[in-house]
Amino acid sequence: MPSHGSLTKAGKVRNQTPKIQPKEKSKEVPRVRNKKEFEKRVLKSSKGTSKEKNT
Q: Which stretches of the chain score pLDDT less than 70?
């Protein structure tokens, strides 16, 4: 099977690029993040409306 380009040059660019350390991810676990967003969106807004209904 013919190949595109010579096999002696395979991986040339990848070997030349400097190795960069991966950044640490600081995002929360999606379950925790969704819980906080839910509390901010639903529970806090419902607290303000419940006071108005009772008065």
A: 1-3, 48-55
